[in-house]
């Protein structure tokens, strides 16, 4: 009898603490949590180098870097070799993390407020937010395109700042570099390597 009660108690405890249970994360909660983490990382108590490392860690965990990289390469990913694809993925991740962290590190405690969300389909939800204005900068509208195919692990696929898609802008920039070199993917590789230095 005591054993039976112990087993029942153990079962209840396991369920209460969530073992063997998975939970979906609402996209708006995910975005607010992410920006709160970024804001804390940008606290002036950290050096610029520390801020950059913290931001890189956050981006690695919350951004679908591989998905964005695939999108920004566009149709060219169908015409290059597997080795070149792998090289691109490595370079793009390094490029993205450096670009993202170094630009954001210039901000000091940015205050971002999530205001709404709109489910586009089973795989995507658009979360709207605002970067609160200050005396130094105006209010900025930021929309987050969140990939929710796995609701337990939402990921950022794009930022739309005042209507401008960063992923699309990056795709156009990469395409221009490749086209300017008669379709040679190595021109893009050289550009990425130069930036990463």
Question: What would your notes on this structure say?
Answer:
53% of the residues lie in helices and 17% in strands. The chain has helices spanning 2-17, 27-41, 48-62, 65-73, 82-104, 166-179, 185-196, and strands at 112-119, 124-131, 140-147, 155-161, 164-165. Strands 1-2-3-4-5 form a 5-stranded antiparallel sheet. Strand 2 and strand 3 form a beta hairpin. The termini are far apart. The relative contact order is 0.14. The model is unreliable at 1-22 (pLDDT under 50).
- Biggest sheet, spatial arrangement of strands: 1-2-3-4-5
Fraction of helical residues: 40-55%
Number of helices: 7
Structural class: alpha+beta
* Global outline: globular
Segments where pLDDT lies below 50 for 5+ residues? 1-22
Distance between the termini: 68 Å
Count of DSSP E strands?
5
Strand content: 15-25%
Write down the Rg: 21 Å
**What is the residue-averaged pLDDT?**
86
Order of H and E elements:
HHHHHEEEEEHH
Report the major sheet: 5 strands, antiparallel
Give the helices and strands, then pairings:
Blueprint lengths: L1 H16 L9 H15 L6 H15 L2 H9 L8 H23 L7 E8 L4 E8 L8 E8 L7 E7 L2 E2 H14 L5 H12 L1
Helix pairs in contact: 2-3, 3-5, 4-5, 4-6, 5-7
């Amino acid at each position: 009898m005591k054993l039976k009660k112990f087993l029942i108690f153990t079962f209840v405890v396991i369920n209460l603490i969530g073992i063997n249970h998975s939970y979906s994360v609402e996209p708006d909660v995910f975005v607010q949590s992410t920006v709160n983490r970024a804001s804390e990382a940008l606290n002036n108590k950290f050096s610029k180098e520390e801020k950059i490392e913290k931001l890189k860690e956050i981006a690695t965990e919350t951004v679908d870097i591989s998905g964005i990289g695939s999108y920004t390469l566009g149709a060219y990913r169908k015409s290059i070799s597997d080795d070149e694809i792998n090289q691109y993925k490595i370079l793009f991740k390094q490029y993205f993390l450096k670009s993202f962290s170094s630009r954001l590190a210039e901000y000091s405690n940015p205050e971002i407020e999530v205001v709404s969300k709109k489910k586009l389909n089973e795989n995507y939800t658009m979360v709207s937010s605002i970067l609160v204005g200050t005396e130094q900068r105006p209010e900025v509208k930021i929309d987050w395109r969140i990939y929710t195919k796995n609701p337990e692990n939402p990921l950022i696929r794009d930022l739309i700042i005042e209507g401008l898609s960063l992923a699309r802008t990056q795709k156009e920039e990469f395409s221009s570099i490749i086209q300017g070199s008669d379709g040679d993917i190595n021109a893009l590789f050289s550009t990425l390597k130069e930036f990463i230095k």
